[in-house]
Give the backbone structure.
Amino acid sequence: MRFHVLTLFPAMFGSYLGEGILARAQDREVVSVNLHDIRDYTHDRHRTVDDYPYGGGPGMVMKPAPLFEAVEAIRASGELGESSPVIMLTPQGRTFTQAVAEELSYHDEIALICGRYEGVDERVALHLSTDSISIGDYVLGGGELAAMVIIEAVSRLLPGVMGSAESPANDSFTTGLLQHPIYTRPETFRDWDVPEILLSGHHAEIARWQRRESLRRTYLNRPDLLDSLTEGELTEEDLRFLRELSELS
Ligand code: SAM
């Protein structure tokens, strides 16, 4: 899968992309990340990418022309299909979730546009981008961190990126719930023991405990996730356990 990132700060990506699973994904040629400096698509001596907002107001606005020219040049190179998503990163976009990561993971190529300053001329959203995504209800100084978040979350889902021992299948959100607690050695750390059931070797009982802890965590920390589960995703036993939890609280 190929990511194209349009940014004013390509150097920000270097060390992050050079480590961990993203480095591995690129070494295995499952993922490639092409960084495009938006200033390379300007035509004036100062490589101007921003201008004052029409109608007044604070801050500067990113001009549309360099972004249109950048996307057109990438398309012309054959490395971004006509129907590939061109995603504007903005706090005003739809919220990025595991489900959106999965949806994006089915594309061969994706372009991510990183805004800066007060934001980007609206004509980019209206006539260039095909989607807009926010990584959460807060405002960052630029879209670069959002692009990195998306690249990593999507890459983890691609076959060949993670070893089977670290499969994303049990991750929080993939199952619709938060993941159960996890422990490793030592068995006792500063008087705190690993739950006995995990040492028992009874796989069915362990799975039952993990399911319950997953439900408990989701009930306590993210009850909204339970509301969005569809019928059939919770068993009779799950429902009984959730009723017990609600009676206790
Ligand atoms: N004035 C804009 C608003 O209120 O919607 C915010 C502009 S922000 C300072 C500059 C850029 O950072 C945005 O154009 C966007 O690319 C990026 N950005 C900031 N917060 C983001 C978020 N939560 N998700 C994705 N991108 C974000």
